[in-house]
Amino acid sequence: MTLLTHWPLAGLRLTTPRLELRLPNLDDLAALASLAAEGVHDPAVQPFTAAWTDVEPEQRARSVLQYHWSRWGEWRPEKWELNLVAVRDGTVVGTQGIGARDFSVRREVGTGSWLGRAYQRQRLGTEMRAAVLHLAFAGLGAQHAVSGAYADNAASLAVSRKLGYREDGIERHVVRSEPAVLHRLRLTAERWQRHQLVPVKVEGLTQCLPCFGLA
User: Fold this and answer.
1) How far apart are CA 2 and CA 17, in angstroms?
2) Domain 3-212 has CATH 3.40.630.30
């Protein structure tokens, strides 16, 4: 018996021209936590609803570890969240997540991501998102993908629009004790097919299908 026998997600690989996305091992998680400790965004802004970055570096790093471990422990086919590390030339540069509730019925996924500050503005965010969208639509048979970004998060909004998302309304939240407007975005399978900008290769998916609630 190997780890893959009990946890086939460990063998899932998404490859783009510059990145490999995979379930992190402990060394990958340590690298990702260190990346978070170095900073994820300009401290003057807060792009996340849960302000997990507004703490000291060591606490920020530990929260990354605990978040990934909690998602592993709470995984169910009816409610799952797959958080992958993005690796470029052997270096962990960020993380890309994709999740769903009752996916076998709803066929809808949501995504979220962040990159270390040293790796931003290099179009890596587009490749990361394109990779999990390929997994969702081509691999799992999704019909919709949703995302969201605050009005001042121009980079995230630009990635969504580039990949074919359309506006899907707004939500009002409180961020740092101030009102903030979140723009919801939605991508259909049809529009995804017309906006595939990045070639993606998927390995190890067949064994994982029951984990996603698919036969």
Assistant:
1) 30
2) yes
